[in-house]
Amino acid sequence: MISIEIKSYLLNKKHVFRIAGGARTNTPVLLVKLKYDRFVGYGEASMPPLYGENIATAQSFIKTFDFSLFSSPLEIEAILKSVDQHAKGNPAIKAAVDIALHDLLGKMKNMPLYEYFNLPKKELKTSKTIGIDSAEITRQRVEEASDFHYLKIKLGGDNDTEIIKAVRSVSDKPLFIDANQGWTNKEEALDKIAWLKDEGAIFIEQPMPKKAFNDMEWLVARSTLPLIGDEGIQRLEEVKTASNFYHGINIKLMKSTGLREAFAMANLAKSMNLKIMLGCMSETSCAIAAAAHLGAMADWVDLDGNLGVTNDPFQGHQIINGCIHLNDTNGIGLINPDWNKIETYV
Ligand code: MG
């Protein structure tokens, strides 16, 4: 029999985090522990407020789902199908169940998840994200990120030029740019892209609002840099038409409902010649460790959500010189998790 425990948790950010569209200092999380036989699997739902889920919705989702309908985690396909049909939306809490089930399966099958997905073990050069801030703070954050090979710069406010100037005054590293839907005029967006290419940007994430379909069709045909859909691409269904609007997609477990669909999205994207970015929310090392197992499928990795927090309750893969080194612990790769020590938030 599969049993479940949950814990609400408040993940605090090291610094106030600003992007086009808002600022925050913490992220509500629901942690999930699944037990089967002598095995334990951990999962996580990270729920930044703008996506609409919260601790109450996640708790009620879990409390009304009947795990006793299934006899073993080996029925993962049927379980996740039923989880997805249990209620519309709710991708983060669905991801928590998916991650915990995969952690269980890896432990039962005695293998780390990259092996379960039949992927090579690869060192992942993750980017380090720099939020929107003053020139002085931006320079400071860039200098703090000296270990990393790529910087992910949040733009889309009204001071894009100042931010890039500040970054370039202290670093010549290649840049991932994320406008978070902040550019609303397609001609201006096109000019910004050309300028950012000269400034050493590699791609642009979500340049325009997710529903600006006509503008994105126009822009994707003219852009001199790859355009990556993030807010505009959440689940597998949306990948099918992604190439009308983007050159690639940002896959995140909290949008995709977990590893299983993320893996399917990456496979479909590859078959369509779309670029693949593997991203995250502000997350504990639980969801970050899980996502890293799909790293070999990604062109670009942005798995730094656990690095910008002060109270990560888990320990996962090591980061050495800006590279995530997958460990060979079975399942998602948490090192000696101690559930009882984790302090409940509400
Ligand atoms: Mg993004």
CATH class category name of the largest domain: Alpha Beta
| pLDDT averaged over residues | 97
> Globular, elongated, flat, extended or rod-shaped: what is the shape?
globular
Radius of gyration over all CA atoms, rounded: 19 Å
User: Remind me, CATH topology of the largest domain?
Assistant: TIM Barrel
In CATH, the architecture of the largest domain is: Alpha-Beta Barrel
Helix tally?
12
N→C terminal distance: 28 Å
* Helix/sheet category: alpha/beta
- Quote the beta fraction: 15-25%
Order of helices and strands: EEEHHHHEEHEHEHEHEHEHHEHEEE
Write the layout of secondary structure elements.
Blueprint: E1 2-19, E2 22-36, E3 39-46, H1 55-63, H2 76-86, H3 91-108, H4 113-116, E4 124-125, E5 127-130, H5 135-144, E6 150-154, H6 160-170, E7 175-178, H7 186-198, E8 201-205, H8 213-222, E9 227-229, H9 236-239, E10 248-251, H10 253-256, H11 259-271, E11 275-278, H12 285-292, E12 300-301, E13 318-320, E14 323-325
Parallel strand pairs: 5-6, 6-7, 7-8, 8-9, 9-10, 10-11, 11-12
Antiparallel strand pairs: 1-2, 2-3, 4-14, 13-14
Magnesium ion binds next to loops.
Structure description:
- This protein has helices at residues 55-63, 76-86, 91-108, 113-116, 135-144, 160-170, 186-198, 213-222, 236-239, 253-256, 259-271, 285-292, and strands spanning 2-19, 22-36, 39-46, 124-125, 127-130, 150-154, 175-178, 201-205, 227-229, 248-251, 275-278, 300-301, 318-320, 323-325.
- It is an alpha/beta fold.
- The protein has two domains: 3-110, 2-Layer Sandwich (Enolase-like, domain 1), CATH 3.30.390; 116-325, TIM Barrel (Alpha-Beta Barrel).
- It has an eight-stranded parallel sheet. It has a three-stranded antiparallel sheet with strand order 1-2-3.
- Strand 8, helix 8 (213-222) and strand 9 (227-229) form a beta-alpha-beta unit.
- Helix 2 (76-86) packs antiparallel against helix 3, helix 5 (135-144) crosses helix 6 (160-170) and helix 7 packs parallel to helix 8.
- The chain is globular and about 60 Å long.
- The chain starts with a strand and ends in a 21-residue tail after the last strand.
- The mean pLDDT is 97.
- Magnesium ion (MG) binds next to loops.
